[in-house]
Amino acid sequence: MFKLNLKIALRNLWKNKGFSLINIGGLAIGLASCMVLLIYVAYEWSYDKQFTNNDKTYIVYQNAPANGKIFSWAWTPNVMAKEVQEKIPGVKYASHSTYPRAKLITVGENKLSSKAVFADQAYLKILDYKFIKGNETQVLKNVNSIILTKSFAQKLFGNEDPINKTVKLENQEVLNVEAVIEDIPNNSSIIFDCIMPWALFEKTETWAKEGNWGNNMCLTFVQLQDNKFFAAANASMLGIYKRNQKDNLAEAILHPLTKWHLYSDFENGKSVGGKIDQLKIFLLLAFCILLIACVNFMNLSTARSEGRAKEVGVRKAIGSSRKSLISQFFLESILITFISTVLAFILVEISLPYFNNLLNIKLVIDYNNSGFWITLFALMIFTGFIAGSYPALYLSSFEPIKVLKGFKIKTDSSVSVRKVLVVGQFVFAACLIICTAVIYQQLNYVKNKPIGYDQSNLVQIAIQGKMADNKKLELLKTQLLASGATTKVTFFSNDITESGNNTTDVEWEGKNPNDVISFNNRGIGSDFIKTIGTELVAGREFLINAANDTNSVMLNEAAVKMMKLKNPVGAKIRHWGNERINVGVIKDFVVESAYQKVAPMIFFPSSTWGSNMIIARLNPNQNISSSLEKIDALVKEMEPNYPVNRKFVNESFEAKFQDEKLLGTLSNWFGGFAIFISCLGLLGLALFMAEQRKKEISIRKVLGASTGNILTLLNKDFIKLVAIANIIAFPLAYIIINKWLSAFEYRVPISFLPFALAIIISVIIAVLTVSIQSIKVAKANPIDALKYE
Amino acid sequence: MIELKNIEKYYANKGVKSYILRHVTTSIKQGEFVSIMGPSGAGKSTLLNILGMLEEPTYGEYHFMGEDVTAMKERQRIELYRNHIGFVFQAYHLIDEMTVAENIEAPLLYKKIPGAERKSRIADVLDRFNMVAKKDLFPNQLSGGQQQLVGIARALVAQPSIILADEPTGNLQSAQAEQIMDLFKKLNQEENITILQVTHSEKNAQYGNRILTIEDGVIKEDVSVNG
């Protein structure tokens, strides 16, 4: 029976090639979209889960009150790990380490800038990276030692065995290669090329040696013996700052490693989500697209019921029970799902490289993973059952004598079910159109919002090695200007597109002693304002000879506002315990999120504590590539030991929109797919309706209706459906989009435009789809249809 | 074999009952060849459908081989039906997607007959109907008469005790019709299969041994024919 049914299903597919194509194609696109999204979600979900005891591992977060809010970040004092290990109950290991930082590693003439982590031995016990070579138990004991990742070792030494060979760190320390580990997987929060002992970090950066509860400078991992200790340990962590430093207001909490990547947003010191919210949207999108594809299948299968009715009748008349008919139709839907899955697979494999490129990640299908096959199989069966359920129940319900006698099947109920399904599809499609439009509006709005300086033609060059010297920098600046490649050059203590480096240690007259206000702390060189193209609002800049101006600071407008200074210029300010005078106010410019208001910022002359970046404005009259070549040559001449690290500011700035761009791109693509699949469903319904109304249309034509009249008649119903779908979609989309926008301080007002767009697009698409089909019927010779009556 | 007592069938439409069958009481014995005749709309087909358990009477009793059909559950009825009743239709009603052999096989599958026996029975039937060469053709590749032969073969292969035929020759030319009627007669006489046919043609009715005439839902006449 099974074999025969299978054969018949295949013959049916072959006989109705057009239908099969729409059906399988729609389902395959739906399945492929769903699969790509699921692979992406699984990838994000798998972050930091490659370690053996990932479920027992935690990151220490600091909750620090400032500006009336609580800021949470995974920066902790260097003494935290030791204290946690000794005093907190249930702790197995506690480690302190740096975040990956750029370090120059050389072997002979081979100079490579690497991402390096400095860590203690406990670090490798908590995060059990896979060792390829070397003695796991002995690593990081020796101060001058290093562990390389496989690919980094390859870059340094080629195919030679690197163990016990030496490399040089920053051209100073000679390190012995002790071990080689597997490359760090992309789905890790911490990605590096090499690990060096914490002791080496203390040796090279002497300030790090001293234990200081006020200086949050490293990353602390904690592994518990068992999760039953978590409540006690976490409770005990809360007061750890206060116990060690009386006036420290910060609290510490344990944040699970497995949630580090996805739950990174904190509000009032509590985890409130993060990337997981986006992931949930994608998961929902994946499910909805699949559902749309299933609905499509239902629509198309039931639309063909006329053709299948006779078979059902005959089968019942020769002794088939309803149950065996239901199983036959399920078999067919699962067969179609199977074919679609195979096709979807091909689509996924073809499109993955493109998506990886688009999303800038590396997704692969892991064919060795049993979970993958199980999910795929479950997805297939699920789709087959959902898609096949309605056709199976509907088709098997036909009464044999009625269909055999040639009665028209009563279609009222099935048509209304199908209408509901089509409305459902278009509700979803309209919602997606609206949401995508608003996402793009928001992105555009924020991108075009003035950021306070001119990004174009602005480059940043990292200050490395010997360059980090005020005199040499001044010399380099002169050379850069003289070369004609640049028109303005200045120095900055940070990457201008990055946040971080803030202080609450700023006091002024009239400050409420209980207020804690966080300032972004930046050192600027001379010509800063002119170079980046911002404005001086009041007062003056630092003197060119900054050595005579060490007592001065500058503020940005946000700082003035926050400090409530009436006469900002000349105000006395204590910055890091030193008495300073504010000499000028700079217009606000964005260094952090472009979606948030600019935070208070305090500036000091960069020569005091050194700068990390040279910022240069390219000469607009010169060819850009030759300018860049000149710059690189000059920098290389100054510090030949380091590769030149130069980037365009607007490119780095663009990275701030990564998440929203991703959301926009994905909703655009998958929204497009959803609409396309919905159209296929509509096409199916139109096909059916036209078939059903063949006689009516023929009679109308005989009575004198034109093709146009008939088209209007047929389209009217569908436009009504699409209109209803839009009316349902509007409030729904409004709620969703409002919720999404509320996360941004700067946001576009919700306008009429996206809604108008949704209704126009959906109506046009619907009319086109329906007309393609109905024009055939409308133009047909009425006699052909009436002859058989 | 079949006992009908006071069978009624009507459709209620806005409170008005339109009767199809009224007070039909009759019995049919094993081995009879009965022709049901009457003008269009008299209720012949409805009666046949009720006998074939495709339709339920609104009222009345129907005993098939001693069992009360009206009181049966659907599952039992399908079981009884699979084992004892074969249907032949005016429009043949073969499944277009199946070959001749598969069409014949279908009822055996529903009866859950094992594969080896299915094969031998199909081969047997094909042989008897001289259609071995056509077994892999699809219905639309056959003439009407050939299609009806397949229809009868399909009804016979399940070895029913009764064949219900609804104007089996209605769509056929006279030569083909004669062939079909001869076949029925042979089946009736040689294999003792009860046959019930609805027909318009006096001539076809003469093949049987009893004629029931229905007019306006009522049995008007019940006469024996001496074939």
UniProtKB/TrEMBL annotation, chain A:
<feature type="transmembrane region" description="Helical">
    <location>
        <begin position="749"/>
        <end position="770"/>
    </location>
</feature>
<feature type="domain" description="MacB-like periplasmic core">
    <location>
        <begin position="20"/>
        <end position="235"/>
    </location>
</feature>
<dbReference type="InterPro" id="IPR003838">
    <property type="entry name" value="ABC3_permease_C"/>
</dbReference>
<feature type="transmembrane region" description="Helical">
    <location>
        <begin position="329"/>
        <end position="352"/>
    </location>
</feature>
<keyword id="KW-1133">Transmembrane helix</keyword>
<keyword id="KW-0812">Transmembrane</keyword>
<dbReference type="InterPro" id="IPR050250">
    <property type="entry name" value="Macrolide_Exporter_MacB"/>
</dbReference>
<dbReference type="InterPro" id="IPR025857">
    <property type="entry name" value="MacB_PCD"/>
</dbReference>
<feature type="transmembrane region" description="Helical">
    <location>
        <begin position="21"/>
        <end position="43"/>
    </location>
</feature>
<feature type="transmembrane region" description="Helical">
    <location>
        <begin position="669"/>
        <end position="690"/>
    </location>
</feature>
<dbReference type="GO" id="GO:0022857">
    <property type="term" value="F:transmembrane transporter activity"/>
</dbReference>
<keyword id="KW-0472">Membrane</keyword>
<feature type="transmembrane region" description="Helical">
    <location>
        <begin position="718"/>
        <end position="737"/>
    </location>
</feature>
<protein>
    <submittedName>
        <fullName>FtsX-like permease family protein</fullName>
    </submittedName>
</protein>
<feature type="transmembrane region" description="Helical">
    <location>
        <begin position="372"/>
        <end position="395"/>
    </location>
</feature>
<keyword id="KW-1003">Cell membrane</keyword>
<feature type="transmembrane region" description="Helical">
    <location>
        <begin position="416"/>
        <end position="440"/>
    </location>
</feature>
<dbReference type="Pfam" id="PF12704">
    <property type="entry name" value="MacB_PCD"/>
</dbReference>
<feature type="domain" description="ABC3 transporter permease C-terminal">
    <location>
        <begin position="284"/>
        <end position="400"/>
    </location>
</feature>
<dbReference type="GO" id="GO:0005886">
    <property type="term" value="C:plasma membrane"/>
</dbReference>
<feature type="transmembrane region" description="Helical">
    <location>
        <begin position="281"/>
        <end position="300"/>
    </location>
</feature>
<dbReference type="Pfam" id="PF02687">
    <property type="entry name" value="FtsX"/>
</dbReference>
Automatic annotation (TrEMBL), chain B:
<dbReference type="InterPro" id="IPR017871">
    <property type="entry name" value="ABC_transporter-like_CS"/>
</dbReference>
<dbReference type="GO" id="GO:0016887">
    <property type="term" value="F:ATP hydrolysis activity"/>
</dbReference>
<dbReference type="GO" id="GO:0005524">
    <property type="term" value="F:ATP binding"/>
</dbReference>
<keyword id="KW-0547">Nucleotide-binding</keyword>
<protein>
    <submittedName>
        <fullName>ATP-binding cassette domain-containing protein</fullName>
    </submittedName>
</protein>
<dbReference type="InterPro" id="IPR017911">
    <property type="entry name" value="MacB-like_ATP-bd"/>
</dbReference>
<comment type="similarity">
    <text>Belongs to the ABC transporter superfamily. Macrolide exporter (TC 3.A.1.122) family.</text>
</comment>
<feature type="domain" description="ABC transporter">
    <location>
        <begin position="2"/>
        <end position="225"/>
    </location>
</feature>
<dbReference type="GO" id="GO:0022857">
    <property type="term" value="F:transmembrane transporter activity"/>
</dbReference>
<keyword id="KW-1278">Translocase</keyword>
<dbReference type="Pfam" id="PF00005">
    <property type="entry name" value="ABC_tran"/>
</dbReference>
<keyword id="KW-0813">Transport</keyword>
<dbReference type="InterPro" id="IPR003439">
    <property type="entry name" value="ABC_transporter-like_ATP-bd"/>
</dbReference>
<keyword id="KW-0067">ATP-binding</keyword>
<dbReference type="InterPro" id="IPR003593">
    <property type="entry name" value="AAA+_ATPase"/>
</dbReference>
<dbReference type="InterPro" id="IPR027417">
    <property type="entry name" value="P-loop_NTPase"/>
</dbReference>
<dbReference type="GO" id="GO:0098796">
    <property type="term" value="C:membrane protein complex"/>
</dbReference>
